[in-house]
Amino acid sequence: MTENTQSLKEKLEGSKKYLQNADLKKADLEGADLQGAELGGADMRGANLKKIFLSEAKIAKANLSEADLTEANLSGADLNKSNLGGSNLKQAYLRRADLRGANLSDTNLFKANLRECAMFKTWVKRADCSQANMQNIKGAQMHMQGSKLSGTKLEGADLSGARLDNVNFEDAGLQVANLSRANLKGANFNRADLRGANLRYVVGLTREQIEHSLLDKTTLLPNYLKIKWETETKFEILDNKN
Questions:
Q1: What are phi and psi of 76, to 5 degrees?
Q2: pTM, 2 dp
Q3: Nearest alpha-carbon partner for 211 in 180, 190, 187
Q4: Each residue of 133-155: pLDDT tens digit?
Q5: Per-residue pLDDT tens digits for 175-198
């Protein structure tokens, strides 16, 4: 983009309803107010979108790969099937955004707020989601292989049928989360809080993975892992190691 940054912001802020398929590659839109904007199909690759206000914006099928969205407000935004691969979403606010089918692989989501987001079949592979708020997300059949979720809040999250191979859940809060039928091969649950979580019918979960996690009697484990409770939180696994 060759226009003066300020004039570009003013132009876009005045044209919120007419930005479908806009060419905004590498545009400097830091702090712009585009609440409710119509940006479906827009090309925002590599754009500076720090602290941009895109609450309730329509951004479906847009390309935001490699964009800097640090501290951006995307609450309630429609990002269905958008490409955010490799973008920086550090401390971004995405509460209740529609991210179904979107690509967030290789993104920085450190301390981002994704609470109650729709994330059915979303791709979040190799992403850094550590210390993010992902409480009550609707993330059935997500692809999160190799992502970092250490210290992440996932209470009440629906991760049923998700690909969670080699995910780092260290110190994560997974109370009453639904992981039924998820693939957990190689996942790290050290000090993860799994009280009340549903782990029935999961694939790849071993005794070694849960020996250092926090369980209680309401945790639902796969049938091949038998628990003998010694106290309310201390347990012994009775099955063999395979």
A1: 70, 10
A2: 0.92
A3: 190
A4: 999 999 999 999 999 999 999 99
A5: 999 999 999 999 999 999 999 999
For 169, other C-beta atoms within 10 Å of its C-beta total 27
Q: How buried is residue 51: exposed, middle or buried, by Cβ count under 10 Å (0-12/13-18/19+)?
A: middle
At residue 206's C-alpha, the angle toward residues 200 and 212, to 5°, is: 100
Nearest to 155 by CA among 186, 196, 189, 183: 196
pLDDT at 216 over 60: yes
Distance, CA of 34 to CA of 23 (rounded, Å): 15
Q: How far apart are CA 15 and CA 12, in angstroms?
A: 5
> Of the candidates 110, 208, 119, which has an alpha carbon nearest to the alpha carbon of residue 163?
119
Q: What's the CA dihedral at 170, 171, 172, 177 to 10 degrees?
A: 100
State yes or no: pLDDT of 41 exceeds 90: yes
- Beta carbons within 10 angstroms of residue 4's beta carbon: 11
Q: What angle do CA 105, 109, 113 make, to 5 degrees?
A: 125
